[in-house]
Amino acid sequence: MRTPTARWVAGALSAVTLTAGMSTPAVATAEPPAGYYDSAEGLTGAELESALHDIISESSTLSYDEVWDALKETDADPADPANVILLYSGESRSEDSNGGNVGDWNREHVWAKSHGDFGTEGPGTDLHHLRPTDVQVNSERGNKDFDNGGGEVAGAPGNYTDDESFEPRDEVKGDVARMIFYMAVRYEGDDGYADLELNDQVGNDSAPYMGRSSVLLEWHQADPVDDAERRRNDLIYERYQHNRNPFIDHPEWAQEIWL
């Protein structure tokens, strides 16, 4: 087991305190359109989850080819718009270096598409969990669940993996958690695709589950929403799918549903 960084120890301790006190991450929310979440206000638990599902299911879909161009905008490097930022390594790489060869970036399904066998349709083209990643790092992550620990990933310092789980770098731990929360609420088995659910284990393989939920909730609290996530959420809503990730707009709702 590796020794956690000082930043992550502090964040994890903070997360434990927040969870115990049923508090929420201290972060300003993004700005959804007026009235977008009206039907969810004041709800908790299963009722809140159901209301959010109905809201965010009102969306458009992209083809798998269209995802390439969308990611070039949603994940553009603010310092060099001709590049994209890779999720796990944090590297800025040319947007034209997309493909399947060594040195390319490709489309990482943060909720692994084999967890529910949805392939590259429906959930498989949902931008709220698709991110650019280095081809070899993507392969290393594979379809593993998320958890702490393992050996450091070659080509992506700060990421760790073992046979059953993957731990992203500290700077995107919360991003990963909020993408997984979105998928668990968006896809409930009422649209021809699997009912995706969180659970608190790893090694889920092809089952429509993703873990480890307790760790994802810690990551969510220790790594709050940042401006890059807000910008991405806005772009997906305005230009592509016309729906939002509610856990970016309202981080406190993750606790209302899963704690």
Q: Name the beta content range.
A: 5-15%
- Total strands: 11
Q: What's the average pLDDT?
A: 91
Strands in their spatial order, largest beta sheet: 6-9-8-7
Spans of 5+ residues with little confidence (pLDDT < 50)?
1-29
The helix-and-strand class reads alpha+beta
Distance between the termini: 27 Å
Nearest-angstrom radius of gyration?
17 Å
User: What helical percentage do the residues reach?
Assistant: 25-40%
The tally of domains stands at: 1
Figure out the total of helices.
Answer: 9
* Major β-sheet profile: 4 strands, mixed
SSE pattern: HHHEEEEEHEEEEHEEHHHH
* General form: globular
Region (Disordered): 138-167
Signal peptide: 1-28
Pfam family, one: Endonuclease_1
Keywords: Endonuclease, Hydrolase, Nuclease, Signal
How would you describe this protein?
The chain has 259 residues and is an alpha+beta fold. The chain has one domain (6-21, 35-258). It has nine helices and eleven strands. A hairpin with a 3-residue loop joins strand 8 (160-161) and strand 9. Helix 1 (6-20) packs across helix 6 (213-222). It is globular and about 45 Å long.
Kindly summarize this structure in a few lines:
The chain is α+β, with helices and mostly antiparallel strands. It has 9 helices and 11 strands.
Q: What keyword list fits this structure?
A:
11 strands; 36% helix; 259 residues; alpha+beta; four-stranded mixed beta sheet
List the helices and strands and how they pair.
Elements: H1 6-20, H2 45-56, H3 64-74, E1 76-77, E2 80-85, E3 92-94, E4 105-109, E5 130-134, H4 135-141, E6 145-146, E7 151-152, E8 160-161, E9 165-167, H5 173-186, E10 197-198, E11 209-210, H6 213-222, H7 227-240, H8 246-249, H9 252-258
Parallel strand pairs: 6-9, 10-11
Antiparallel strand pairs: 1-2, 2-3, 4-5, 7-8, 8-9
Helix pairs in contact: 1-6, 2-9, 5-6
Pfam families: Endonuclease_1 (PF04231)
Organism: Prauserella oleivorans
GO molecular function, one term: endonuclease activity
